[in-house]
Specification:
362 residues, alpha/beta, D-Maltodextrin-Binding Protein, domain 2, Double Stranded RNA Binding Domain, 3 domains, five-stranded mixed β-sheet, 10 helices, 35% helix, 21% strand, binds ligand PBG
Length: 362
C-alpha cells in the first residue's frame, strides 16, 4: 500500500470541503467507539466536510444464524456492510481489523490501518472470584471462550480446565460471566476491546507469549474502501500508522498463506523494531512469533524470527508473512490445518442440520 504524496493529500484536503462522506459500521458499542475515533480523525483534518455514520447489525451480531457456513463464517461481520460500500450507500467502513476476512471481496480494499491498541488477550475473572491466574483455577473450572485459538492455547498449558462457548458483544459476555448462576469462572477477551469501551478495570491479567499468542489483526482498526476510489483513498490514507500497517499486513499474509481463514487456531505476536538511531547500519525490522495448534492444544507448530524490512513497504511486510507461513508448513503446520479443516467440515454439516450458532470468534 503506497502512501499518498503530499500533492495527493493537498488535493484531497481541498476536495473534501463541503462534501458528505458516509461511514458504515456495525452498531455494537465497540464498533461505534472505533467509528467515532475514525470520524474525529477525519473531521480534524477536514473540518469543512461532513461525515455521517450508517450503523447496522450484521449477521454476526444476531444470535442465531442459519446455514452460516454457506457464507463463509468469517464474512459474517462484514458482508452486508461491503454490499453497502459497493452499492455506493457508504464510502468507507470501519472494522476491527481482526474481523476482516484476509481475502476481501472483489472491488473492496483496505484504505488504512490505524495505530494498534494493546493487541494482547486479557483474562477476566468473574466478579468476586478469589483467583488471579488460569493456573490458580481449581480443576474443572470453566473458561468462557468461543475462539478455537484461545481454547487450544489454554488447554495446552492448563489441561485441567474446561472450555465453554460464550457469545455476544463484550458487555453481553461480561454480563454472562458475572451471572451467579452462570457456568463461567472466567472469560478471555481482547484487551483492546475492553480498553476502548472503558472496562480496563475488568482485566485481571494480560496474556501473552509464550502462554497466549493473539489473533491476526487483533487490536487494530481497519478502514475498508472501494478499490480505485482515489478520493476516499487519499482521505483515509493519512490515518494509517506505518508500524501497525507493517505488522498487520505481515500477519494477514501469514494467515492467507496458511489458508486459515476462519476459526483456525493461528496465534501471532508481531513487534515493529525501529532502526537504531545511533546508526548501526540496521534498518527497521519486524519480530514475528506465530503458532498453529491442534484444537485440543496437544500439538503446536511455532516459528519465531526477526526480519529486516529494508524499506520494502507493504510488499516486504507481506513477504515476511509468507516466509513465516512457509517455515510453519515445513515444520508440519499443514497436517494440523488439514485436521482442523476436516473437523470443521463435520461441524458445519451438524450445524446445518441444527441451524446452530456460528463459531466465528477469533
Ligand atoms: N469478533 C469479536 C471481536 N472483534 C474485535 C474484538 C476486540 C477488539 C480487537 O480485537 O480489535 C472482539 C472481541 C474480542 O475478541 O474480545
Amino acid at each position: 500500500m503506497s502512501g499518498p504524496t503530499s500533492a495527493d493529500a493537498a488535493a484531497a484536503a481541498a476536495g473534501a470541503a463541503g462534501k458528505v462522506y458516509r461511514i458504515g459500521t456495525r452498531s455494537s458499542q465497540l464498533a461505534m467507539i472505533q467509528t467515532n475515533i475514525v470520524r474525529s480523525a477525519l473531521l480534524a483534518r477536514h473540518p469543512d466536510a461532513t461525515f455521517e455514520i450508517t450503523a447496522m447489525k450484521t449477521m454476526g451480531d444476531k444470535d442465531k444464524v442459519t446455514a452460516l457456513h454457506s457464507f463463509g463464517a468469517k464474512s459474517l461481520w462484514t458482508m452486508e456492510l461491503e454490499t453497502l460500500l459497493l452499492d455506493g450507500e457508504v464510502d468507507l467502513i470501519v472494522h476491527s481489523l481482526k474481523d476482516m476476512p484476509t481475502q476481501l471481496p472483489a472491488g473492496c480494499a483496505i484504505g488504512s490501518i490505524l495505530e494498534r491498541e494493546d493487541p494482547r488477550d486479557a483474562l477476566v475473572m468473574k466478579a468476586g472470584s478469589p483467583h488471579r491466574t488460569l493456573a490458580d483455577l481449581p480443576p474443572g473450572s470453566t473458561v468462557g471462550t468461543s475462539s478455537v485459538r484461545r481454547g487450544a492455547q489454554i488447554l495446552a498449558r492448563h489441561p485441567h480446565l474446561r472450555l465453554a462457548n460464550v457469545r455476544g458483544n463484550i458487555d453481553t459476555r461480561l454480563r454472562k460471566l458475572d451471572d451467579p448462576e452462570g457456568p463461567y469462572e472466567c472469560i478471555i477477551l481482547a484487551a483492546a476491546g475492553l480498553l476502548r469501551i472503558g472496562s480496563h478495570h475488568r482485566i485481571t491479567a494480560y496474556l501473552s507469549a509464550p502462554t497466549m499468542l493473539h489473533a491476526v489483526g487483533q487490536g487494530a482498526i481497519g478502514i475498508e474502501i472501494r478499490d480505485g476510489d482515489a478520493d476516499v483513498a487519499a482521505l483515509v490514507a493519512p490515518l494509517s500508522h506505518a508500524p501497525t500497517m507493517t505488522c498487520c499486513l505481515a500477519e494477514r499474509q501469514l494467515m492467507r498463506t496458511l489458508e486459515g481463514g476462519c476459526s483456525v487456531p493461528i496465534g501471532v505476536e508481531t513487534k515493529f523494531l525501529e532502526a537504531d538511531p545511533a546508526g548501526t547500519g540496521e534498518g527497521d525490522r519486524v519480530h514475528v512469533r506465530a503458532s498453529v495448534s491442534s484444537v485440543d492444544g496437544t500439538r503446536c507448530v511455532e516459528v519465531e524470527d526477526t526480519f529486516s524490512l529494508n524499506d520494502g513497504g507493504a510488499p516486504r511486510a507481506e513477504e515476511v508473512g509468507r516466509l513465516v507461513a512457509q517455515r510453519m508448513l515445513e515444520r508440519g503446520a499443514g497436517v494440523l490445518l488439514e485436521e482442523i479443516q476436516k473437523s470443521k467440515d463435520a461441524e458445519a454439516e451438524a450445524e446445518t442440520a441444527a441451524a446452530g450458532e456460528p463459531a466465528v470468534e477469533q
